[in-house]
Amino acid sequence: MPPQYRILVTDYAWDTLDIERSIFDPIGAEIIAAKTGEEAELLALAPPIDAIMTNWKRVSADVLKAAPKCVTVARYGVGVDNIAVDAATELGMIVSNVPDYCVEEVSDHAMALLLACARSITTFDRDTQLGKWDLAAGRPMFRLRGKTLLLIGYGNIARTLAPKALGFGMKVIAFQRSREGIEDGIVLTRDLAPALAAADYVSLHLPLTPTTRGMVNSDFLNQMRRGAFLINTARGAIIDELALREALQTHVIRGAALDVLSQEPPPDDHPLLGLPNCIITPHAGFNSVESVEELQERTARHVIMALQGKIPPFVVNPQVLNAAHLRLRA
Length: 330
Prior knowledge:
Rossmann fold; five-stranded parallel sheet; 15% strand
């Protein structure tokens, strides 16, 4: 018997799709897992597809146009900058995400990167592994209590990070336009320049949009205080990476700790690879056994809801819900 639904999975960062299959099998849905996730392959697979699930691979307008039966695109994760959302809206497809998952993991990762900077962990580890027992290599180091952390953007992850930093005795400043969600103990600022000049650590928590792309440029970095560290667990393209390399090499700032890059995995000649004052982890902030299992299950259930004519939670393009060409099937 042919499947009732076909669901294209462009890519995934875990070992198997067993959780998704256990959810889809009862409704007669078949998973079509792309081998490479590149556009040419997705274009070939798209025509019979009823839904798309995507992790990091680009789901372009052309891929969406090649899928006339597709009712929804579900993101494994928070950001949707890899999905042609405007094209999906024009075609009547619902785009969903899971914005409230992995907030503990990413906020833990941001705090871990901050601590690694504060305590020169990677410097000491590299030197010791090479047979160098040199306490001076990590100097100067300063007590964390009393230092200032600036959170640029104050969504779910930043709000979860803030009390962790407060627990270390840090002063926490949040840069955002409204007071919404600002808890006791957090200082709100709407003026970025003096906050950058005052902060010992600057942590980015913004979505990637045309406005935020490249916002951390030379001007931004030159407004940071000398001796400060930049932390990014958001999106790599928020940073002008050539400008950051220059700032690190000329000690405009002391260091950076990044879980995201503009190109992942990075090419061998990426401008930030090999810098002694730049920590890079492989977009691992979201990862834990618990968060991945939660992500697999919730994303799959969003797809089932759309296939059954129901509106999933966390619709990224709500304007499509009132469109005459909405593909949701009653």
